[in-house]
Amino acid sequence: ALVIYDPNIRHPETLKNPILKKALMENLQWADIIKGSNEDYEAIFGNQEPEEQLKSVHNINQKAYVIMTAGKSGSLALYDNRFTRVKARETEVVSTIGAGDGFNAGIIAFLAKAGKNAREMIKAESLFRENLIKTGTDFASDVCSSEENYISISFGKNWKNEEL
Fold first, then answer.
1. Are 32 and 3 in contact (CB under 8 A)?
2. CA distance readout (Å), 56 to 11, 81, 86
3. Residue 33 and residue 103: Cα distance in Å, rounded?
4. Could you tell me which residues come within 8 angstroms of residue 140 by beta carbon, excluding any fewer than 6 positions away?
5. Residue pair 33/65 in contact by the 8 Å Cβ criterion
6. What pLDDT shows up at residue 159?
7. pLDDT on residue 43
8. Where does residue 66 fall: left (phi above 0), alpha (psi -120 to 50 degrees), or beta otherwise?
9. For every one of its 164 residues, what pLDDT tens digit does the chain have, with 9 covering 90 and above?
10. Phi, psi at residue 149, to the nearest 5°?
11. Given 3-state DSSP classes, what are the helix, strand and coil percentages for the chain, each rounded to the nearest 5?
């Protein structure tokens, strides 16, 4: 199984608790995909450039595919010492509540559609990794385009019928 971890740490004070900090570090070490927001990484690693924050995660777990979402600024990812940038989708934002969960749902849906070879594809294919992020972006954009804070049924049905 692939382990996807979203640290969801918004306040640096959380990490003053040594038990919580140890749990965070262990979770980062075990994950295959680490997806955090720019706010998460800033709370964890301080006010650094996004590339440096992702390198910090990479130093903790060199095998993980590390993703940073940054709202309308798009996403940045690091794998095998190579960065990938994906633009945000043009969206009329109604609410950002649930955007991160929607992004994670997109990652999971993409991996489920990819099937058994997903782990190998993450390792071998930069286009696969980029499409993984684009799918997360599409799901998050759908969530942000309504007040409902979840993936719309019409979007889910349309995406289900698309080819990878």
1. yes
2. 18, 12, 20
3. 13
4. 69, 99, 100, 102, 103, 106
5. yes
6. 87
7. 96
8. beta
9. 899 999 999 999 989 999 999 999 999 999 999 999 999 999 999 999 999 999 999 999 999 999 999 999 999 999 999 999 999 989 999 999 999 999 999 999 999 998 888 888 998 888 899 999 999 999 999 999 999 989 999 998 888 877 77
10. 65, 30
11. 55, 15, 30
State how far Cα 4 lies from the chain centre: 9
Q: Are 31 and 3 in contact (CB under 8 A)?
A: yes
Distance between CA 8 and CA 141 in Å, rounded? 19
Which residue in this structure is represented by tokens 């979402």? 69
User: Which amino acid is located at 6 in the chain?
Assistant: D
Token pair 């799918």 is found at 135
Note if the pTM is more than 0.85.
yes
CB 69 within 8 A of CB 40: no
99: phi then psi, degrees, rounded to nearest 5: -60, -45
Q: Pick from 48, 42, 38: which is nearest to 68 by CA?
A: 38
- List Cβ neighbours of 115 (8 Å cut-off, separation of 6 or more): none
**What pLDDT does residue 1 have?**
83
